[in-house]
Design brief:
alpha/beta, Rossmann fold, 5-stranded parallel beta sheet, 48% helix
Length: 208
């Protein structure tokens, strides 16, 4: 199963990517996670990526395409993959089509005001766990490991607003791109719990 997950930052792509990967035993490939790993390691790619990510801007296509093409050539992708955060532009989508054929592009639809409220309340821990302040009851440490929780720079209100503007301008056209190829599947997440969205997603996957 080779899938692309589309949707604005904070629309739930990462959460549901994990569910899909567990079901099909395929890797979750998130360019955001890869960039953050490189940023923490202060690698040459990380230094370049940080200049764009910290401003809420997209990393240039040439860097992203090279990274993803190499990742998809690795052995654990032989049975499929879930792409989360790629492609983000038509140029990236066309490049992907030149070296891999996907089964579907699934779009998670969520209103921007809901996304902003969700993202600015997000806190993360070095252990990899993610929480929302709404459910922490004032707690400042990780319930799982006790580590200090922090807010990512790209989760701050002004940054997420910029990211959403960039998404609308440069990434939303992908919806039309995959619709024309009869590969687009839309899931409306507004007013639905995570479990309700998961049920809709399972129905989609059963039909592919």
């Amino acid at each position: 199963m080779k899938l692309i997950l589309l949707g604005a930052p904070g629309s739930g792509k990462g959460t549901h990517a994990g569910r899909i990967c567990s079901r099909f035993n395929i890797p979750h490939i998130s360019t955001g996670d890869i960039f953050r790993m490189n940023i923490r390691g202060n690698t040459p790619l990380g230094v370049k990526a940080k200049e764009y990510i910290s401003k809420g801007e997209l990393v240039p296509d040439s860097l992203v395409i090279e990274l993803v093409k190499d990742r998809l050539s690795q052995a654990d992708c032989s049975n499929g993959y879930v792409l989360d955060g790629f492609p983000r532009t038509i140029a990236q989508a066309e490049a992907l089509a030149s070296f891999s054929e996907v089964n579907a592009a699934i779009e998670f639809i969520l209103d921007h005001d809901v996304i902003i409220e969700r993202v600015i309340g997000r806190r993360v821990c070095q252990c990899g766990e993610t929480y929302n302040v709404k459910f922490l009851n004032g707690r400042l440490d990780c319930p799982k490991c006790g580590g200090k929780l922090y807010q990512r720079d790209d989760d701050k209100e002004e940054t997420i607003k910029t990211r959403l503007e960039v998404y609308d301008k440069e990434t939303a056209p992908l919806v039309d791109f995959y619709k024309e190829k009869n590969l687009l599947v839309e899931i409306d997440c507004n007013g639905k719990s995570i479990d309700e969205v998961a049920t809709l997603l399972d129905n989609v996957l059963n039909e592919l």
